[in-house]
Amino acid sequence: MTPNLHLWIIPLLPLAGAAINGLLGKRFSRRTVAAVALGFCGTAFLMALWIAAQFSSLSLPYSETLATWIRSGRFSVDFAFYLDQLSLVMLLVVTGVGFLIHIYSVGYMWEEGGYYRFFSYLNLFMFFMLTLVLASNYLLMFIGWEGVGLASYLLIGFFFLRDSAAAAGKKAFIVNRIGDFGFLIALFLIIQHFNSLDFQRVFAAVQPYAPEATGAGFLTAIALLLMVGACGKSAQIPLYVWLPDAMEGPTPVSALIHAATMVTAGVYMVARSHMIFERAPSALTVVAIIGTLTAFFAATIGIAQTDIKKVLAYSTISQLGYMFLACGVAAFSAGIFHLMTHAFFKGLLFLAAGSVIHAVGGEQDMRRMGGLRKKIPWTFGTMTIATIAIAGIPPFAGFFSKDEILWRAYEANWIYWLVGLVTAFITSFYMFRLWFMTFFGEYPGHGEASHGDDVAEWRAGAPAPHTSASHGHGHSGIHESPKVMLVPLVILAALSFVGGWVGIHHGFDNFLAPVFESSAVAATTFQGGAATQARQEAPGLETTLMVVSVAAGVLGFLLAFLLYNRKPELPARIAASAHGLYSAVANKYWIDELYAWIFVKPLIAISGVVFWRGIDQGVIDATLDGSADTAREVSDNLRHMQSGNLRSYAGWVAIGATAVIAYMVWVGLRTP
Amino acid sequence: MLSLSYYLVLSAILFACGVTGFLIKRNIITIFMSIELMLNGVNLSFVAFAAKWHALSGQVFVFFVMVVAAAEAAVGLAIIIAVFRTRQTLNIDQVNLLKL
Q1: Whole-angstrom Cα distance, residue A476 to residue A457?
Q2: B100 and A644 in contact by Cβ < 8 A?
Q3: Taking CB atoms and an 8 Å cutoff, what residues of chain A touch B19?
Q4: DSSP characters for A125-136?
Q5: Shortest CB distance from B19 goes to which of A644, A646, A654?
Q6: How far is A611 from chain B (nearest CA, A)?
Q7: Residues 6+ apart with CB under 8 A from A307
Q8: pLDDT digit string (tens) for A489-542?
Q9: Per the count of CB atoms within 10 A, which of A127, A453, B52, B97 is most buried?
Q10: ipTM for this prediction
Q11: Does residue A3 have a cis bond before it (omega within 30 degrees)?
Q12: Among candidates A327, A251, A358, which has minimal Cα distance to A522?
């Protein structure tokens, strides 16, 4: 007998926090706002821990129905929550990392306006994200899915006075709409074929189907449309363009929403729908190809970016590509494993980057940084751990998950593995490039002179002077961030260090096995003998692949060391000698411009001429105005008949009667 | 026996005279008489058809019309007297208190 877990309380806690801060926060002091936000979010985290603690005694999957939502004939959707190993991992990641980032934000946002608004949005995001991961059916998941999009929009455009931030928010929202369109159609198809949206019922109905080997069936269609949705939310080719722009938001938001949690929703959704994907091998191939391409292209773009957050943004896209690659080769647990470790180290990277930005007074351009390692040692230390973790060097977290993915990719197709390996090398290179540019060399800005007093003043707790309205970190000296920001950094650094160890001896794999138990079957079914063969040679091969991928990571480090530490003049020379390639990469392959030319400009042109001037003004307005004008003119003329003169009325009656009689006579004469 | 159309033409003439009088006369009493003329024009066509088709309902209907006309005459004349007493005129254009 499973006790009632009251899962519904978990998402509701942050919602309560969002409501309290959103409705009353304007009158609260910053301290109260922070206390409310942290209190509700922290309680949700504690509750997640409580569930995790008694997890082994539960009979899974566990589900609870709160209320009926839609009932139409035999089709019904409930407000119901669902817990299995997969949801639990997501639950812990979301509440845990989310809580840490809440703590960090208390310090980071302290000097910004709209403090209560920020935390209200942040809690709102937590509510929707938790709804998404705990939902028991696709529709409730979709609510969470849309909700996190809304929260993301609100938070990207948090500094809404800045044009670029408002535009970035809109871009994120609109690009996500394209993905949501695919997701919705997939839901309609699921309803059409299975008459239910409940995970358990849909998957039970899908179970008997054989994999669609020729790849033209409706399961393939559903899977591909779900993937369109995932592409939008998780920033994959071709819908990734919104994520780099989303860096307009405050850095904690980038860490929480655009690195650790929301953007992984697509991976979660694909993993959750593994039953469908496994039976649609061609859709899986598409997922793997999209993932591989995204991983590679985003990584190459990351090489030439100079904005510290943009590098991390492209890195996030690239890492998400890895997760989709894992899903695409039916290694769902490896994808989720990477999702988890990525949440730790990428969250940490963003928070540390935020700490750097905070330290240098709102500067985000890495070319104006350098030599910061002695001035902000805690940030430097934690960032180093995160960088090593993402570069895939053992025993840090990223190594285990990335290696797992690469190994499983090799089993499926060595091309995936090769591209993944090259990407791992590039990842290591651009991350260490960031690391060297930020923390080593000389600080090019104002030096020690103006530094000392400021720190002393700041340590005494005096309010630091504002210079920039939008990004208020206007301190003139470089200083370490306050403790409230450093504690989350240290905790995440610890997690980035040990987080991968759960994957040793396939521990994580085995933990998730009940959820994905059929995935192994499907993997052998559709890849035929190759996978089985690979698995037989596995022990030796796995070690070889591991060594190669570590070597790629180390090579990336060495190259970055050479180019950005030993010979800092070399990168410019290389860029100059390979000018075309460099400018292609630095300009992100002109994808934004391409989209602008192909989609945005024609759409604006068509909207301006056809939809606005033509249809809206020409047809709709003209019809309405025209009928109103006609009615007015006709009544204006008819008004004169209402003279009030009784005799004229009688005259009209007489004329009318005469006309009727004349007509009848005429008809009578015509019919003999 | 005269053909039906004679009666009907006479009936139409009577009715038309009534309508004309109703429309162009100012004196209430004249208008009143014009109404009677119209009613009787209609009565004539009723009895003519009734005789033609040997249907009693036409005759009966005429009695109804006469009864109503008599009642109307009684009430109407009373109203006219009352109007004359208060307004000292029978010109219908001046009996327009209800008009804005």
Answers
A1: 12
A2: yes
A3: 654
A4: HHHHHHHHHHBS
A5: A654
A6: 51
A7: A247, A364, A365, A366
A8: 999 999 998 888 888 777 788 888 888 875 444 444 444 444 444 455 556 787
A9: A127
A10: 0.76
A11: no
A12: A327
Q: Is A465 on the interface with B (CB under 8 A)?
A: no
Among chain A residues, the shortest Cα distance to B94 is held by A645
Q: Which helix (H) or strand (E) holds A67?
A: strand A62-72
* Percent of chain A predicted with pLDDT > 90: 40
**A78-90 exposure pattern, b = at least 16 Cβ within 10 A, e = fewer:** bbbbbbbbbbbbb
Query: A574 at the B interface (CB within 8 A)?
Result: no
pLDDT digits (tens, 9 = 90+) for A84-134: 889 999 999 999 999 999 999 998 888 888 889 999 999 999 999 999 999
What tokens does A368 get?
A: 């104006």
Share of chain A above pLDDT 70, in %: 91
pLDDT attached to residue A312? 92
Q: Is residue A458 exposed (0-12), middle (13-18) or buried (19+ Cβ within 10 Å)? A: middle
Higher pLDDT, A506 or B74: B74
Query: What does A317-369 look like in DSSP terms, one character per residue?
Result: HHHHHHHHHHHHTT-HHHHHHHHHHHHHHHHHHHHHHHHHHHHTTS--BGGG-
Which amino acid does the sequence have at A307? D
- Which of residues A441 and A497 earns the better pLDDT score? A497
When pLDDT is cut at 50, 70 and 90, the band that residue A441 belongs to is confident
Angle, helices A414-439/A308-328, rounded to nearest 10 degrees: 160
**What's the length of chain A?**
672
Which residue in chain A has the smallest CA separation from B97? Answer: A644
Per-residue pLDDT at A1: 47
Q: Are A10 and A130 in contact (CB under 8 A)?
A: yes
Which residues are registered as beta bridge partners of A75? Answer: A72
Which three-class secondary structure string do you get for B55-73? CHHHHHHHHHHHHHHHHHH
Closest approach of chain B CAs to the CA of A630, in angstroms? 29
Asked if A316 and A266 count as a contact pair (C-beta separation under 8 A), the reply is: no
Q: Give the mutation candidate from B23, B24, B97 for the A interface (greatest A CB count, under 10 A).
A: B23
Q: Which residues contact A11 (CB under 8 A, 6 or more apart)?
A: A44, A126, A127, A128, A130, A131, A134
Contact B23 A647 (CB under 8 A): yes
Q: Is B12 an 8 Å CB contact of chain A?
A: no
What residues in A contact B92, CB-CB < 8 Å? Answer: 646-647
Q: What is the pTM of this model?
A: 0.77
Q: Can you list the domains of chain B with their CATH numbers?
A: 4-94 (1.10.287.3510)
Q: Is there a contact between B23 and A644 if contact means CB atoms under 8 Å apart?
A: no
Chain A: give the shortest CA distance to residue B22, in Å.
Answer: 8
Q: What pLDDT does residue A510 have?
A: 82
**SS3 (DSSP) at A472:** coil
10 Å Cβ neighbour count for B74?
10
- Find the residue in A nearest to B100 (Cα): A644
User: Which residues sit opposite B91 in a β-bridge?
Assistant: B27
